[in-house]
C-alpha cells in the first residue's frame, strides 16, 4: 500500500470541487487534471500534452495569462501583474485571473463552447504550476434553463443537432489539433471520440501532409476552401476519399481563433472518375486500333489506286480517237470519278498519319492560276452532280466581284482587274483544301446556296500578297460550342435542319465520310502559311475561312514554263525543266505507259515520278524526278 498522505492528496485532488490541472510552466502543456476538470473543461485524453493557453484560452486573454504564469514561477508579487486599476487590489490578495474566456470541451464529444472562468495559479515547483478554476458568476450558466422556460432550443438540443447532423464536421485549434468532431465524422472514419479528439489532424491523413499544410496556409491567408479532395485513413488503415470545405473563425483583433471544417464522402465521385478513366482508356484503345486499321488499309489501297488512275488516264486518251456508245462513255465517266474519289480518300488517310507523326509535306512552289485551279474544282464537283435546289457560285474579288455559277468560273475574271491571278505557290494543296470545303458544303446543304469568295490584300512592307478564301453555305450549321471539334480527326457529326443531331454512321447513306477532310485541310492550310477557321451556329449555316500568302508570279514565269515544254525537240536527250504538276505513281504504272508509247523497252525510273498535264494535249510523255530532270520516251 502507498503512503496514506499521498493517497489522501490524490483523493483530494480528484474530488476537489474546482477544476484543477497541472501544467508545465514554459510550454503550458497539460500534464494532469482531476475529475472536475475533465467533466467541465475537457477530457484528459483530449487535452493532455496540448498547450492549454494556445488551445483553450481566447487570444485577447493569453497575454495576461502567460504573464501570470511567469510571475508565479518567479515568485514575483501579484501586484506586478498588469491589470485594470479596479482589479489591482483584488489581484494583490489572490493570484487569480478573473473572467478569463476559456474554451470548454465538456464531456466526450460535446461541442466546444466559450465560458468565463476564474483561474487561480500557484507554483508547484520550478517547472510546474497548479491551476484551479471555476465558472465565473458573470457567465449565464443557467441559460439553458431560461431557453427551456421560454420555449427556445436549449443548449443541449443545439449540441445534439450538431452532433447528429448528416454532414461530418470538426473543429481544429490554431495548432492543428482536433478539438471536436461530430458523430457523423467519427462514424465515417471509425474512430471513437477518445481516439480522434485531441489528436493532430495530420495523424489521420499521413498521405496528404503537404496538402494539409497548403490548406492551413490558404486558410491562414483569409481564404475559404471548398471541395478540396483529401485522403484520410480510417481506423482500419484504409484510405477514405473526402471533400473538405473550411474557413476560419477570427478573433476581433484579426488573429486566428479556430477553423470550421465540413467534410463529405468523396467515394462516389472517385468511383465515377475511375469508370470514366476506364471508359476513356477503352475509347483510346479503340481509336488507336481504328487508326492502325485505317493506316494499314489505305496504305495497301494507295498504290493500286495510283495504278488504276493512270490506266484510266491512258484509256481516256485512247477513247478520244474511238467512236463509242454514249452509255459506255457515261459508265467510263462514273468509273473515273469514283477512282479519283478513292485516290483522294487514300491520300487523306496517308496524310493524317503523316501529320500525327509531326511530319509536313514539302511545298512545291510553282506558278499557277487561282482562277483555273478553282475552275478545275468546280468542274469536278459538277461532274459529281449538284442539287437543283442549291445555287453554287464563285466570287472573284470580295468587294467588287460578281457571283458566277460553277460552270462559268473559267470565263470569269478578278475584279478589280489589278488583282493578280497568276501566283507562286503550291496549287495542289490549295486545290485539296478548297475541294474538301466545297464538297462538305454540298453534302450537308439540301437547299439554299453555297458560295466561294476570294478576297485580296495587296503586299505590304513585310508581307506578300494575301488571298482570303471563304466558303459559305446555308446548311444546318454546327453548335457554337462544338465548332472547333469539326477539325478533329474522324469528326462526322452534323446537325440537320430542325435541330436534330445525326451521326453519319449509316454507311448506306451517301452523306457519310471518314471525317478526315477537314482535319487534313486544317493542316494543309497551316503548311501554306494560314489558319483555317470556322464560324457557325445552329440553323445559320457554316463559314470556313483562311488567308494564305501567295506572291504574284512574274509576267514571264508562266509563259516561259509553257513555252519550254512546247519547244522540246525529239532529239534532245536530257535537260532541266520545271515540273508544275507532279503525281506520284508506281514503277509498274509507268512501265505500262512506256510500253504504250512503243518507243523504248526499258526505262530506269527515278524514285518519284510526275506526269505533266500536257499528256492530254501532246503525243509524248515526260518522266520527271525530284531533281527536275526529264527524259522523253
UniProtKB/TrEMBL annotation:
Q: Which UniProt keywords apply?
A: Kinase, Transferase
Entries under SMART domains matching the protein: HATPase_c, PAS
Q: Which residues form the signal peptide?
A: none
Q: What class of enzyme is it?
A: transferase
Tell me the ranges covered by the Histidine kinase domain, including all copies: 296-552
Entry GO MF terms: histidine phosphotransfer kinase activity; phosphorelay sensor kinase activity
What's the catalysed reaction? ATP + protein L-histidine = ADP + protein N-phospho-L-histidine
Domain PAS, chain residue ranges per copy: 154-223
**Superkingdom as given in the UniProt entry:** Eukaryota
* Any Pfam family the entry gives: PAS_9
Please name the Gene3D superfamilies in this protein's record.
1.10.287.130, Histidine kinase-like ATPase, C-terminal domain, PAS domain
**Annotated GO CC locations:** plasma membrane
What EC number(s) are associated with this protein in UniProt?
Answer: 2.7.13.3
Q: InterPro entries, from UniProt?
A: HATPase_C_sf (IPR036890), HATPase_dom (IPR003594), His_kinase_dom (IPR005467), HisK_dim/P_sf (IPR036097), PAS (IPR000014), PAS-like_dom_sf (IPR035965), Sig_transdc_His_kin-like_C (IPR004358)
SUPFAM superfamilies named among the record's database cross-references: ATPase domain of HSP90 chaperone/DNA topoisomerase II/histidine kinase (SSF55874), Homodimeric domain of signal transducing histidine kinase (SSF47384), PYP-like sensor domain (PAS domain) (SSF55785)
The answer to keyword Transcription applying to this record is no
Cite the NCBIfam families for this sequence: sensory_box (TIGR00229)
UniProt-recorded name of the protein: histidine kinase
Amino acid at each position: 500500500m502507498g503512503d496514506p498522505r499521498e493517497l489522501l492528496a490524490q483523493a483530494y485532488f480528484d474530488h476537489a470541487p474546482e477544476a484543477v490541472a497541472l501544467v508545465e510552466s514554459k510550454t503550458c502543456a497539460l500534464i494532469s487534471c482531476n475529475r472536475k476538470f475533465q467533466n467541465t473543461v475537457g477530457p484528459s485524453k483530449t487535452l493532455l500534452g496540448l498547450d492549454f493557453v494556445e488551445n483553450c484560452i481566447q487570444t485577447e486573454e493569453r497575454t495576461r495569462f502567460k504573464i501570470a504564469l511567469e510571475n508565479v514561477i518567479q515568485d514575483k508579487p501579484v501586484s506586478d501583474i498588469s491589470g485594470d486599476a479596479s482589479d489591482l487590489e483584488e489581484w494583490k490578495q489572490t493570484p487569480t485571473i478573473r473572467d478569463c474566456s476559456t474554451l470548454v470541451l465538456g464531456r466526450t464529444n460535446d461541442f466546444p463552447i466559450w465560458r468565463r472562468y476564474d483561474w487561480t495559479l500557484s507554483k508547484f515547483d520550478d517547472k510546474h504550476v497548479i491551476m484551479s478554476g471555476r465558472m465565473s458568476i458573470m457567465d449565464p450558466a443557467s441559460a439553458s434553463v431560461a431557453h427551456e422556460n421560454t420555449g427556445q432550443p436549449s443548449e443541449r438540443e443545439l449540441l445534439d443537432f450538431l452532433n447528429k447532423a448528416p454532414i461530418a464536421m470538426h473543429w481544429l485549434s490554431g495548432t492543428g489539433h482536433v478539438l471536436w468532431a461530430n458523430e457523423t465524422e467519427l462514424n465515417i472514419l471509425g474512430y471513437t471520440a477518445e481516439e480522434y479528439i485531441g489528436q493532430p489532424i495530420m495523424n489521420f491523413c499521413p498521405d496528404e501532409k503537404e496538402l494539409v499544410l497548403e490548406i492551413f496556409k490558404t486558410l491562414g491567408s483569409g481564404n475559404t476552401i471548398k471541395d478540396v479532395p483529401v485522403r484520410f485513413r480510417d481506423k482500419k488503415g484504409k484510405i477514405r476519399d473526402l471533400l473538405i470545405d473550411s474557413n476560419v473563425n477570427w478573433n476581433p483583433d484579426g488573429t486566428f481563433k479556430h477553423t470550421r471544417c465540413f467534410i463529405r464522402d468523396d467515394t462516389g465521385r472517385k468511383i465515377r472518375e475511375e469508370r470514366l478513366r476506364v471508359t476513356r482508356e477503352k475509347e483510346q484503345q479503340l481509336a488507336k486500333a481504328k487508326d492502325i486499321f485505317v493506316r494499314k488499309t489505305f496504305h495497301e489501297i494507295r498504290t493500286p489506286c495510283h495504278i488504276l488512275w493512270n490506266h484510266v488516264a491512258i484509256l481516256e486518251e485512247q477513247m478520244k480517237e474511238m467512236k463509242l456508245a454514249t452509255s459506255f462513255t457515261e459508265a467510263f465517266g462514273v468509273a473515273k470519278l469514283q477512282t479519283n474519289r478513292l485516290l483522294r480518300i487514300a491520300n487523306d488517310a496517308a496524310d493524317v498519319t503523316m501529320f500525327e507523326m509531326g511530319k509536313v509535306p514539302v511545298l512545291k512552289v510553282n506558278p499557277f492560276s487561282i482562277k483555273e485551279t478553282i475552275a478545275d474544282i468546280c468542274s469536278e464537283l459538277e461532274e459529281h452532280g449538284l442539287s437543283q435546289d442549291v445555287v453554287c457560285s464563285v466570287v472573284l474579288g470580295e468587294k467588287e466581284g460578281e457571283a458566277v455559277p460553277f460552270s462559268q468560273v473559267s470565263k470569269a475574271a478578278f475584279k478589280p482587274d489589278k488583282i493578280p491571278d497568276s501566283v507562286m505557290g503550291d496549287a495542289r494543296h490549295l486545290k485539296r483544301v478548297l475541294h474538301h470545303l466545297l464538297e462538305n458544303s454540298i453534302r450537308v446543304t439540301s437547299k439554299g446556296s453555297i458560295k466561294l469568295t476570294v478576297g485580296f490584300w495587296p503586299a505590304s512592307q513585310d508581307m506578300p500578297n494575301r488571298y482570303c478564301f471563304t466558303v459559305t453555305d446555308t446548311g444546318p450549321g454546327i453548335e457554337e460550342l462544338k465548332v472547333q471539334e469539326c477539325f478533329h480527326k474522324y469528326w462526322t457529326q452534323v446537325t440537320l435542319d430542325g435541330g436534330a443531331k445525326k451521326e453519319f454512321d449509316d454507311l448506306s447513306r451517301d452523306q457519310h465520310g471518314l471525317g478526315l477532310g477537314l482535319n487534313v485541310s486544317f493542316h494543309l492550310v497551316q503548311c501554306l502559311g494560314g489558319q483555317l477557321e470556322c464560324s457557325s451556329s445552329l440553323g445559320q449555316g457554316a463559314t470556313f475561312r483562311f488567308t494564305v500568302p501567295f506572291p504574284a508570279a512574274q509576267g514571264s514565269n508562266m509563259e516561259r514554263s509553257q513555252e519550254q515544254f512546247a519547244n522540246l525537240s525529239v532529239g534532245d536527250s536530257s535537260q532541266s525543266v520545271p515540273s508544275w504538276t507532279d503525281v506520284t505513281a508506281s514503277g509498274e504504272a509507268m512501265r505500262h505507259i512506256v510500253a504504250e508509247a512503243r518507243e523504248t523497252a526499258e526505262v530506269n525510273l527515278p524514285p518519284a515520278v510526275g506526269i505533266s498535264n500536257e499528256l492530254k494535249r501532246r503525243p509524248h510523255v515526260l518522266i520527271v524526278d525530284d531533281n527536275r530532270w526529264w527524259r522523253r520516251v
